[in-house]
Batch of 4 targets.
Target 1
Amino acid sequence: MITIYDVILRPIVTEKAVGKKESESALCFQVHRDANKIQIKSAVEKLFQVKVADVRTSIFEGKLRRRGRYSGYRSDWKKAYVRLKAGEKMPEYVES
């Protein structure tokens, strides 16, 4: 059985993500690669007790990384931008 903690792996706290949080009322998360938009929406609503308006996702391929003569790829990962409905209080996970 998949839980909300399996869907949402971690919040992404970058300059771009914090800017979207302030200007567009959108949260940014790294999510499980196989999670769909419906699962992401329900996980955010249950975890933060907010109403979600829209979910946008994008998949990133792992980069090639080298250590001397050894090389390998990082894992592929998925990012989700979750926009909250108007009037919803923004959770403050960044400061804690």
Target 2
Amino acid sequence: MLDERWVFYKDVKAEDQGNGVVRRVLAYSKDLMCVENTFEKGAVGALHHHPHTQITYIVSGKFEFEIDGVKKVVEAGDTMLKMNDVVHGCKCLEAGKLLDIFNPMREDFV
């Protein structure tokens, strides 16, 4: 879907990431990528880092996020900025969805 102007949700393949997490790669270019992650209650996004700047918007649910050693509980409407290579991860406290924006795109997701 690289550089696709219109990306319709019904056409996006859901990719089971295991352990209660489903990923959908939405619109993206080489410079920017939009990804939806759906979490079941109790699912964990393991601590990790990558060379991309990332903004996460909480669409629904409640999550405990750890960013650079600091933990906070976030819910619908909250956002987080994760700069390049900062260690981050989360635990889903109430089933929900996250919308992640990456700069540049995550080539490992396609």
Target 3
Amino acid sequence: MSKLRVAIIGLGFGAEFIPIYQDHPDAELVAVCRRNKAGLERCAKQFGVPKAYACYDELLKDPDIDAVHINSPIPDHGPQTIKALKAGKHVACTVPMATTKEEIAEIVKLQRQVGKTYMMMETVVYSREYLFAKDLYDRGTLGRIQFLRGSHQQDMDGWPDYWPGLPPMWYATHCVSPCLAVLSDPAKGKVALAESVVCHGSGRIREELVSKYGSPFAIETATFKIGGSDVVAEVTRSLFDTARQYRESFDVTASNVSFEWQQVEGEEPVLHMRGLPEPQIPRRVRVPDFAGRLPDAIRKYTGAIHDATHLSFLQGAGHGGSHPHLVHNFLMAALGRQPAFPDARTSANWTLVGICAHESAMKGGERVAIPQH
């Protein structure tokens, strides 16, 4: 197969990926899918996509589609992924993988049975800040990692009706994933996985939000053990009734140099250098976009080149320029040129950390073992 024939499911956030697939030399975007027919037809016409489906089940019957990229609401991720794998399609899916342990187990089992690629499209582990920290670690600059911390804080008031009252840790992959990914080397078959988690809830959201999921906490904070490592990671997540600018962040405390994500949007990350006089220890750094890892045709989507033709789709200010990296890595995996990262097993672990963390919080901070697939 010289090109992967892709369909995009969900055209809100999902529409941002359309021009990236269209410009990638190893992809052919053949279809889009959305329930709203008017919006579907408008999008297909705007981007010149040849096929438009209002019914997901009908799309899966199309033999000219090799892969689906799912960007639908969170409750649909598990069921739509399961259907796609059963239909023999490669799957890229936005986070989280699913919302229940049962759906996650079925996805991992199906992926092994059908032999198709599954990749959770986790933005943080392809953001420029993460790639910078990972590169420093791989080159030995950081030294020995001693502690990891992730944080994802966002005010979700006014979002679609499945969001109000959602347990914070059910949508925790943005802060969990970099803590595990930085210790991984998928090209060598080494993937760090969480073994168990302890989580505490703090504060209380409005009563009308509590009733939907039975989760009272404004903030959930978890620590989890990493298999085969002496490093512990801590993650914090909030969704409602917490005053904080949107922030996805990742900090690495290491023996020689530590990396600290920017506190406020528009700032630059900080490196802390061991052994210098106290005032000289921290310094802000400008991180590169790592566009050189991508085919020439999609490098502009990292935000490095402000081409007015694609300005509304550049992700330089959002998700750290991760979208073209995600698309490229999914395509290379589905075409058999490299391992998917995160693959089904890894995606399951990253998602289960959050599901099990919320269980722990509801049990007053009991340690919960994370199912291993």
Target 4
Amino acid sequence: MTRPSQRSMAFFAAALVAALAIWGTSLARAEKQGTTQNSAEECKMDPVAQSICVYDLILDDIRDNYRQRGGGGISGIVQTSTTGFTARLEQEGRVDVRSYEIRFEADGRPAIVSVTEATETM
């Protein structure tokens, strides 16, 4: 029986490390996706924390409900009024615009009241 060479053992070790790194990254993503719901306390902390809660809510909505996956992706999310936000999604020759009306629950968490879709041509 021949013994594995140092070179093949090093290759195996490197492959194992890479596989564990990929698995760890996938596990971290899965845990993050399961916890994107911010707590009410986090959302009430200050205006920046509240904005983060709103942006997370909008990003979740885009992930779950926006089906046009080509183009250039999300180019911006902007607050347009106290409760209004607009997300811009770049596509070839156009920009899809999703306008959100948000309300803030008594506990501080944001909720989507309405979404309006429009398209701007370039």
